[in-house]
Write a structure and sequence with these properties.
Helix content: 10-25%
Largest sheet: 4 strands, mixed
Strand order of the largest sheet: 2-1-4-8
Shape: elongated
Radius of gyration: 25 Å
Length: 162
């Protein structure tokens, strides 16, 4: 009878171990991973800046000899004041706003119009439409148009010292 009790105890221990592993895997997959993947908590003024920085994709920008592509080509934005940037396509053909260095904002995602879902306009900034990006960190962000690489610009986001 002692061997039967040992087998019974071993079976209960094995079942308890399997349940513990299952609970641990469930916690990791359904609670820990989603929490770790959430957007960071940022100051309200960074997420909802009072002003917008605007850039125009110039008419005729696809022509390398045009000389005007993104107007202005270099623009400064202030974190917590004007760090929401909108590019308006005033040209007659579609363009992109694509990061030069693969920048990925921890809040907004990849700095690239090609990453937008179709519901938000899709990959190209079509004539008369806008592309919007919220920068949440200080830095210099060079970009270009993917089909027209001669089109280049840069956003510099600076700290708000006011």
């Amino acid at each position: 009878m002692g061997a039967l009790q040992q087998n019974h105890a071993a079976g209960i221990s094995l079942i308890a171990f399997i349940v513990a592993v299952g609970v641990s895997v469930g916690f990791y997959q359904f609670i820990y991973v989603p929490e770790a993947s959430q957007k960071p908590v940022l100051r309200r003024e960074v997420v909802e800046p009072a002003e917008i920085t605007e850039i125009t994709i110039a008419e005729g920008a696809a022509n390398a000899e045009n000389g005007a592509f993104y107007i202005p080509a270099d623009k400064r934005a202030i974190l917590g004041v004007s760090n929401r940037v909108i590019w308006h396509n005033a040209d007659s053909i579609a363009h992109t706003v694509t990061t030069d260095d693969g920048y990925r904002d921890t809040y907004s995602g990849v700095f690239d119009s090609r990453e937008r879902p179709k519901e938000e306009g899709g990959p190209y900034v079509i004539p008369g439409e806008d592309f919007e990006f919220l920068f949440t960190k200080v830095g210099e962000y060079p970009y270009h148009c993917e089909p027209h690489p001669h089109m280049a610009g840069q956003i510099e986001v600076v700290e708000n010292f006011s």
